[in-house]
Amino acid sequence: MNISEKSKKIIDSCRFCWMCRHVCPIGNATGLERNTARARALGASLVVRGATELNEIADNVYECMLCGACTNNCMTGWDPKVFIYELRREIVYAGCAPEYIKALISKRIESGNVFGLPVPEKLTKAAKKNGKTLFFAGATAVYKAPECVLDALGLIEKAGEKCAFDPLLNSGADLWFLTGKTKETFDAASRCAQALSGYDQVVVYDPKDLAFLLHECREWGVEIKTSLVSFNEYLNNLIDSGKIKVNKSEKEYALQDSYAYARDLGDCESGRKIIDKVGVRKEMLLIGKEADAAGELIMREYMPAVIDAAARNRWTSAKNMNCFTLVTESPDEYVTLLATKPENFEVFTLEKIILNNMGE
Ligand code: SF4
Ligand code: SF4
Description:
Layout: H1 5-13, H2 19-23, H3 25-30, H4 37-48, H5 54-61, H6 69-73, H7 80-93, H8 99-111, H9 121-126, E1 133-136, H10 139-144, H11 146-158, E2 163-165, H12 173-179, H13 183-196, E3 201-204, H14 207-219, E4 227-230, H15 231-240, E5 252-256, H16 259-264, H17 270-278, E6 280-282, H18 297-302, H19 304-320, E7 325-328, H20 331-339, E8 346-349, H21 350-356
Parallel strand pairs: 1-2, 1-3, 3-4, 5-6, 5-7, 7-8
Helix pairs in contact: 1-4, 1-7, 4-5, 4-7, 5-7, 7-12, 11-21, 12-13, 15-17, 19-20
């Protein structure tokens, strides 16, 4: 197995403090000890030492959302995600990926997205070539949350902004999730970078895509010659510049922090600023960098019950703090929270609460 010294160090540094056992949304959803960074470190350590085979730990390596809650809380200061990504690459290269992962990779190769779906007709119709700014929706939103993409495009139009939109663009973050740093991921990222580089500015809707483009692509030397802006930042700018006029209502909203915004991009504020402009902000427990993830849609393809249980845990947390309306800042969590929403609760995207509170 070809894994880096850095990964070996992380695996060996685990002090078995069990902190990651309390914060892992998957472990909390399944109640299984194996669903923790600690258990994965142990499994990886056995493989490194030749005491077990890579295929023995393959399922468990894919039972991780890569949300980074363990990284945020690991007492060693190391990042367990580093070895999980490397293990995924090694598992795929060794040909011992679980069948459900092989199926997702095949769909990605054949159809351009891991869901194996065609672009929804309404988004094909919404495609626009002209504009110096590109609205980059990302594959998760295009195939799993097309209504959110239409809302976002509608809001941009109401602001009088001219944005190009190509629903076929895929950053490669999906391959990064499934296979880590492989040639296929690198090639997908390079193709996307080339397409993005034709624009002055790219507004990135999905924070997982933005984190991937800003961090992994740059680390690998994939050159992206454009200015990348998060959708939250773009929305705040549209409101602050007066292009979008909003009314502040008395409605209470609680933000479901996206782990990609909060932990990967270090932005726990932009979503809250939007809520403050259109309503009254409430807070749940486990917010900001401590946020408990409510879902991941690639993983929901092969562990739907577990992902939905994680989302339901988030609803329980909301209920305990009397938060009846959640606002999401990622398509993954919008879809999972909507699918598991208890009666009398609501979930909206940030763009939707702006649309619902627009002034003249
Ligand atoms: S990255 Fe998230 S899902 Fe994976 S082990 Fe850490 S806390 Fe659990
Ligand atoms: S938090 Fe870090 S040190 Fe503690 S058990 Fe988990 S991986 Fe090991």
